Amino acid sequence: MNDPIRLSKHVADQAACSRREAELLIEGGWVKVNGQIVEEPQHRVSPGSDEVWVDPQARPESVPPATLLWYRPDPKTPCDAQALQGSAPISRFPVRVLKRHFTQQQAIAGLEGLATGLVVFTQDGRMRRRLLEDEAEIEQEFMLELPGQLTNEAIDQLAARLQQARLWPLVPVVGKVSLNARGPQGTRLRFALKASSAQGVLALCAQAGLRPQALRRTRLGRVGLTGLEPGQWRFMGPHEKF
Hints:
Elements: E1 5-6, H1 7-15, H2 19-27, E2 31-33, E3 36-37, E4 44-45, E5 52-54, E6 67-72, E7 106-108, E8 115-122, H3 125-133, E9 140-146, H4 152-164, E10 166-168, E11 171-172, E12 174-183, E13 186-194, H5 198-207, E14 214-220, E15 223-224, E16 233-235
Parallel strand pairs: 8-14
Antiparallel strand pairs: 1-4, 2-3, 2-5, 6-8, 6-16, 7-8, 9-13, 9-14, 10-11, 12-13, 14-15
Helix pairs in contact: 1-2
């Protein structure tokens, strides 16, 4: 019986390609071992007993870094991209979902505590720097649910507090608060802010003596929750920008 060898070596021999090209084929999800996709080039196979299949449409290309958009459904759900791996994305364009899409993902402008809604994960270093360096210039939209029917005067007072808020000592919060809905179940306010965060909105409410029931981020820059239900996620498109 033949000794097990690395899958990348077997694919390189079978597909008549270089070892590096074989690794790219495997990492790209183009190779099956005994009917199951295997994405690890170091996986061991036994020639003659394991069936290795390479997709005829396979292309030995590097997998570009992915940015994932997720609708955090519940304040108790951790902001962890690995939790998305077992579910299929809402598709806007064809993407091969791979294990590597979920590794080394970092939550940018993540949500904590009470906040739900849009969370951005990215593997892209340039995207990460863009969001962090331009944090004060990217507008965020939040929907805040409050018990009772908040009066127009109370909303105006909250807006006045907003004008005095600071992200850092020299960086003022820029934005506005407005009434989105008012009914028997309570009041919903819309916040559109730059140089702030979910924690900033909650801190503002605490200063005003308000006790929010829920806080949902609906937009970060130009990217919103449109098309996503709670718990769902999708890949950020190549032409989308924050």
